[in-house]
Write a structure and sequence with these properties.
Layout lengths: L2 E7 L7 E6 L7 E10 L2 H9 L8 E2 L3 E9 L11 E5 L12 E5 L3 E3 L6 H4 L3 H12 L29 E4 L4 H12 L5 E5 L4 H6 L4 E4 L4 H11 L4 E6 L4 H10 E9 L15 E4 L18 E4 L6 H10 L5 E4 L6
Parallel strand pairs: 9-10, 9-12, 10-11, 12-13, 13-14, 15-16
Antiparallel strand pairs: 1-2, 1-4, 3-5, 3-7, 5-6, 6-8
The structure holds NADP nicotinamide-adenine-dinucleotide phosphate (NAP).
Amino acid sequence: MSEHKALYVPEKQAPFAVKSVPTRKPEPGQLLVKVESAGLAPVDWAIQAMGILVEKYPAVLGMDAAGTVVEVGEGVKKFKKGDRVLKESSDCDAFSGFQQYTLAFEDTTAKIPENVTFDQAATIPLALATSAIALYHDGENAIGGTCGLTPPWEEGGRGKYKGQPTVIFGGASSVGQMTIELLKLSGFGPIITTASLRNAEFLKTIGATHVLDRNLSPEDLYAQIRKITQESFKIIYDAVGTSETQNFGYELLAPGGILAAVQHDLIAPEKKVPEKKSFFMYGDVNVPQNQGALKPIPVEVVPGGLEGIPAGLGKLRKGVSCVKLVAHPQETA
Ligand SMILES: NC(=O)c1ccc[n+]([C@@H]2O[C@H](COP(=O)([O-])OP(=O)(O)OC[C@H]3O[C@@H](n4cnc5c(N)ncnc54)[C@H](OP(=O)(O)O)[C@@H]3O)[C@@H](O)[C@H]2O)c1
């Protein structure tokens, strides 16, 4: 059996170490990916340093991975050897990112566009999942909760919330950046975020309309927000998750509003009222409850391989609805 190198935690809170581990063969519906870039997430250090979340050791960590498919399991249709892919990890073992080869599930792996590098791709899975699941999960079996917004990739979703203000605490964090981008696609505005002011210009390039200093006192922050808008806030996203941000965000919410937080509930119980909701999000696309939160565009295959494309273009010209046409060049007669 072949082997590869993995960074692992031998037992709870023990120092990281590198060792050789067996390279597992992908089972049906799985891929084996050569990891070219692995993203580092706060949860990775927290598991090792604080002994949280993981009970089974030795454990391999690393939530985010980008690389090349080197083998596909039985029945895999969407991927082939050589595809550049990104994936979120799930098991602190053979599916984790901090190793030279990782397993991936076909259903929760995505191809990387040509203009995105492996390093850029490795920034996406966990942050996007944490943001998108909290904002757009359809609510069925949602862990914790959901804002229940119509996703921008569904019909009528793009720009749907035009003119609704929102606040995102921690806009410069990975999760915060994804949330700014998604809420911009959803049409929200103004998009107010907190960050170190050195990040203000960059955050405006990705969609924030106002960047307020993360070090403002709650009173000053409130005054600055009210200078920007007097409208009520129905959606607030807390990508920081401290007691300060959660309590401030909850107070700022309008009745009927929802606060999504990246950490467990720290809102003072005496502040809780039935007409305001808050929830702790669970940003893992691999648990069944979260699958389907991020849906690819519905696809329709044009028959006939390359020769079928002109007819497909004709159909496209007349207009398609909520579907992307694709062709399979390998099916060319
Ligand atoms: N629930 C889940 O499923 C889930 C999933 C992923 C992450 N998380 C949690 O979400 C949080 C963010 O994760 P991440 O990967 O996005 O972190 P990250 O990118 O490492 O976050 C770093 C950023 O946080 C910002 N920040 C820190 N404290 C802030 C504050 N008080 N106000 C405003 N900004 C602040 C800093 O902004 P400046 O540089 O501008 O100062 C910094 O750029 C972490 O607590 C993580 O554990 C939860």
